[in-house]
Amino acid sequence: MEQAYIDLDINSQLTARAGLFLLPIGILNETHEPPTFYGTERNPVEKYIIPSTWWEAGVNMIGKPLPGLQYDLAVHSGLSANAYNIRKGRKKVAKAPADNLAMTGRLKYTAIRGLELATSLQYQDDITQGKDPSAGSAILWETHAIYSIQRFMIRALYAQWSLDGDGPKSTGQDEQFGYYIEPSYKFNEKFGVNYWLHPDVVVKLDYQIQNTPDGKNDFDGFNIGIGYQFY
After folding, report:
1. Domain count, the chain
2. Least enclosed by CB within 10 Å: which of 1, 17, 148, 173?
3. Which structural domain, as residue segments, surrounds residue 187?
4. What is the rounded CA–CA span in Å between residue 28 and residue 30?
């Protein structure tokens, strides 16, 4: 289960959310179903750095002080990462250790038609939940922009973890970051890299070249798949 929460509308500009929710970070994390993005696989930045799909339990204050301007302020369960592996630090909330909570804030601007600008910041005092005394605090910063006009769209995102402490530094994992720029153009409503059999069903084909510093996760080849979403 990714989401199970209750929203309390305090007024027309402020909502309190409590329960299990997707964290307000990045482009794909809150809307990650296959028909909503290009490419057969989710991009590596939002898979390993953010890491989507990422949900936690806690409370979130959602404010909309002006049209097209939104902020999120959340306190929630945190990661429990062994060997400073961010993606493997996600745990099923019911069984996850919660000795160390995390805080996430986001500011999002959508007042101009076709434009989204957002930035998120997360802080956790210890992403190992006390298992590694050589680990310190962890900060994730993410920012992205989306602009679409008619059939053209461009997405750009940057995300970076800064892990404090001698442990992450000794393994070279104290700085983990990634970015991407994704231009796209729809020739028509059906064909392209993605082929929508139905608005909620998509066939995907792409060619991927991926290089990593240690070469362990290098990849060069085609991806093909089919995805769907339901409500």
Report:
1. 1
2. 1
3. 4-193
4. 6
Distance CA 231, CA 200 (A): 10
d(C-alpha 169, C-alpha 134), whole Å: 10
CATH of the domain at 48: 2.40.160.10
The answer to whether residue 162 is domain-embedded is yes
Specify the range with the lowest mean pLDDT, choosing from 14-18, 74-78, 182-186, 222-226: 222-226
Question: Among 139, 76, 73, which Cα is nearest to 107's?
Answer: 73
Query: pTM of whole model > 0.85?
Result: no
Is residue 31 included in any domain, yes or no? yes
Residue 78 counted as domain residue? yes
Distances 154 to 27, 37, 145, 150 between C-alpha atoms, Å: 12, 12, 8, 12
pLDDT at 189: 53
- Does a structural domain hold residue 216? no
- Whether the per-residue pLDDT at 157 is higher than 70: the answer is yes
pLDDT tens digits, residue range 202-225? 887 777 777 776 777 777 888 788
